[in-house]
């Protein structure tokens, strides 16, 4: 008897609302986020698709007051107060040495050799693309666990890299504040482009 694939069933509207339609970028986040929740979040985002399963994304969950003080000097003025007030800020980065993990992550081919002699520019392009995918999955995972997100740029990447990734080949990409949003402080939702202005079916 034919069985429908597991992924063929549409999620209920309540789930789609949480992940997409009513999800917002929050500037004001409060509450507390436990370490167990952050570990559960990673255990979801790690399933993000990446080229050759390379998984170059690296994540620093900046939670303690001491760690927040280390991050503060790198923040643009407009992002400083909300980031310092958020329960957790995630530094989403990518490791230029991602290929070292490929014998474990992609064991059915000699994928590490594919990147032998690659320039830092090529490695950074690969890492940024796939690490960004993982960062997006992080936000979906956070929303699925009941958290709100405030993704942003607006910081000095070089300062973050020097402070948090010194001695490594990890480079920061963007930040995500995590916590429980305050709906009363949201701006009215901005529009999105309709299908015919942003997409086509060929």
From TrEMBL:
Superkingdom field: Bacteria
Keywords (A to Z) from UniProt: Flavoprotein, FMN, NAD, NADP, Oxidoreductase
Cofactor(s) demanded: FMN
Classification via CDD domains: RutE-like (cd02148)
Enzyme Commission number(s): 1.-.-.-
The protein's enzyme class: oxidoreductase
Every Nitroreductase domain range: 33-164
Gene3D superfamilies: NADH Oxidase
Transmembrane regions listed in the UniProt entry: none
Gene Ontology MF annotations: oxidoreductase activity
Family, per entry: Belongs to the nitroreductase family. HadB/RutE subfamily.
Protein name per UniProt: Putative NADH dehydrogenase/NAD(P)H nitroreductase GCM10007067_18800
UniProt organism field: Cognatilysobacter bugurensis
